[in-house]
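Data card: per-record layout.
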Amino acid sequence: MANAPNTDVLTPDFWDDVLDFCHQITGEVSDRLLKDFGQLQAVEKADGSLVTDADKWSDQTIRDAIAEVFPEHGVLSEETVHIFPDTDWCWIIDPIDGTTNFARGVPLWGISLGLLYRGTPVFGYVCFPPIAQTFYGYWYGESGLTGPTGAYCSEPSGGDRPIQTRPDPPGKNQLFNLCARSTAVMQQPFPCKIRMMGVATYNCLLVASGATLGAMEATPKIWDIAAVWAIVQAAGGTFATLETQSVFPLVVGENYGDRPFPSLILSQANWLSQFRPLVDCVVA
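The structure for this 284-residue chain is written out next.
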């Protein structure tokens, strides 16, 4: 059973403040990133991924803003802090998800913010500046927390529309997203058409929005999945780890910098038995 939440930190406006903060900080960061988009040289990190000065600036700016607005909250981010802190609340930041796209001028990349309570995501927010599209959602699970519910998408036309996963069964006219490291699934008959976006969060959020039936991410890090874990489930989907150990709750003091979390994301839980055997080859 989950521990009772510390309601002392939940002011009547807490969730409004969280959402407003995400709107404001991603708007500020987006303005700068759009100017740097396709203009900066990327360098390779030790894990083989790319990083630019824009990633570092975005990371620092978001962490500074969290420290000012939510000083009691911890932070774990891709570019700096990889140790999960001993705080009830923790933000997990991916300052630019899709750095390769960002550096090469491909207009699909995002800013991802996941808010965890006692080690488990309860709110996710992902902004995609080049396409002016934002996703967010609330998923409380067994946390004992209460507040707004559901998943939403904000688009250039204005307003936040509720999103839900697709109820359709697998078929040749349905879509399924892969990452670059999960293409081995195509060596066998597959029940859906394959798509690849190059951005882990967007792969997952297309499932949440009902565009695709599923997604496979072979080597995502915790900052790739923290925000979308909440949004996908808030939209009615299933986020299944392909390891025997559950991803959440995260463990205080553990270093998550090098740990991948192979994941299968599906629109409906009842498709898990069909798709799980098809993607096991990726993590075998």
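Known properties of this structure: Confidence is low (pLDDT under 50) at residues 1-5. Residues 14-36 form the longest helix (23 residues).

See the next section for split statistics.
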